[in-house]
Every structure is written in C-alpha cells, then in structure tokens.
TrEMBL record:
Location of the region described as Disordered in the Swiss-Prot/TrEMBL record: 1-26
Descriptive protein name: F420-dependent oxidoreductase
NCBIfam families assigned: Pr6Pr (NF038065)
Organism: Brachybacterium endophyticum
Superkingdom, taxonomy of origin: Bacteria
KW Transmembrane (keyword) present: yes
C-alpha cells in the first residue's frame, strides 16, 4: 500500500498576512494621529497664548483709562477684530484635533474658516497693516507677532503637511461663506452705529461705503478661493484620519 505524506505543519513563525487588520493601514494610524495631535497642540498653544495676551492687554488699556473706552465697548471691539475671530476659530479647531475629535458639519465649516481666515489675517497684516502700524515693544509686540505671523504660518503648514484629510466637502465650502458675510455686515453695521471700525481700509469715514464694501467683498472672494483650493487638495490627496 502506498504511503501518503501528511500535510506539512503550518510554520507559526511565518510572516503574518499583510491583509490582516492588525497589519493593514490601521496599524499606522496611531503614529499618524500622534503627529497630528502634537502638531495641532502646538497650534492651539500659540493661539491660546495670543488670545489671552491680547485680551489682557485690551482690558488693561481700558481699565487704566488710556483708551478712554469703557469695559463693555472694549470687549465688543475686541471681538470685532478679524484677527481675534480667526485666532479663536483656529484655537477651537486645533483643540478639537488635539483631543482626537471627528468633526461634524459645523466644525468642518469652522475649521475651513479658521484655515482660510487666518491666512488672510497674516497676509493683510503683513502687506497692509504692518507698514502703517506702530506696536509698543515688549509683550504687546510679542502678542502681535504670535497672532499675526506665528499662528497664520503654523496653521497653514500644519494643515498642508499633516492634515487631517477628507474633511472639506462641497457643502463645507458653501457653508464657509457665512462667516465672512456675517463679519462684513456686522462691521459695517457696528461702525455705522458707533463710528468705530477695526481697520482703516474698511473705515467708511475714511474710504467711503463703496470702497469699504469693495474691500470686504474682495476679502470674502479670496477666502472662498482659498476654500476651493482646500477642497481641491482633498480631491487630489489620499484621505487621512485621526487615530
């Protein structure tokens, strides 16, 4: 009777199946997530420093009477600056990513506004406001640099390099229109009521309603162009996710 060889025993030391869930793409997600959290944590720290510093400086100027403006109007003016609102949006978005959150539709829109708005903040400050503004040395200069240069650059670099990917959709771009529109309406309405405008290029008393409106619309259009660029980037790069 012929002998039949028994099947060879399975080698337990053989290489694991690369398709196994433990060795698929998810195996790399914790490392990617850690890099994203660390990067956005740095962004959040810088944004928080700038927000706290600028608020303390504004309140201090109001309380010591150097501005001649009461505490209430000072707070309203503080949150009327595009710089403050975009830094706040960056702080919220960065903190969400730091905590490993999966943003819903509202947070996606806020994040897109944060990225595009903070880039506008940096560009407008560098080319339009920095040449004509005088910031006192010391802490005010440091806070000004963090909010207008460090946070915009850092946010843009982190968004481009580490993501996250897959968060910008068509309706996200459409939703991002609301913030610049609301800001323009608020700025013109508040300025008309109080005579105070946050920036000279939108000061109706200086440039007139037509030019102020034109400046606001230009900023809105540029923000939407940047938003479309973010959407296109999502289409051209692999989707990523926070671990």
């Amino acid at each position: 009777m012929p002998e039949f060889a028994s099947p060879p025993a399975q080698d337990s030391s053989a290489a694991p199946d690369p398709a196994s869930p433990a060795n698929g793409p998810s195996a790399d997600r914790p490392a990617i997530g850690a890099v994203q959290r660390l990067s956005w944590g740095l962004v959040a720290a810088c944004a928080a420093f700038g927000m706290c510093g600028s608020l303390v400086l504004s309140l201090g100027d109001s309380l010591d009477g150097s501005t001649g403006v009461g505490l209430g109007p000072t707070l309203v003016r503080y949150v009327s600056f595009f710089t403050i609102l975009t830094n706040l949006a960056v702080l919220i978005a960065a903190t969400s990513f730091l905590l490993g959150g999966r943003p819903g539709p509202v947070l996606r829109v806020l994040t897109l506004n944060a990225v595009t708005g903070i880039v506008i903040t940096g560009v407008v400050h560098w080319f339009l406001l920095r040449p004509i503004s005088e910031t006192p040395p010391g802490v005010p200069a440091l806070v000004d640099t963090v909010q207008h240069i460090v946070v915009p650059l850092l946010t843009a670099v982190v968004w481009i390099v580490v993501g996250p990917r897959g968060h910008v959709r068509g309706r996200t771009v459409l939703g991002s229109l609301l913030f610049p529109l609301a800001y323009l309406v608020w700025t013109l309405a508040h300025g008309t009521a109080t005579g105070w405008y946050p920036y000279p290029f939108i000061d109706v008393a200086v440039v007139g309603y037509a030019d102020a409106l034109h400046a606001g619309i230009v900023i809105l259009v540029i923000m939407e162009i940047l938003a479309c660029g973010c959407w296109l980037r999502e289409r051209l790069t692999p989707a990523g996710r926070l671990a």
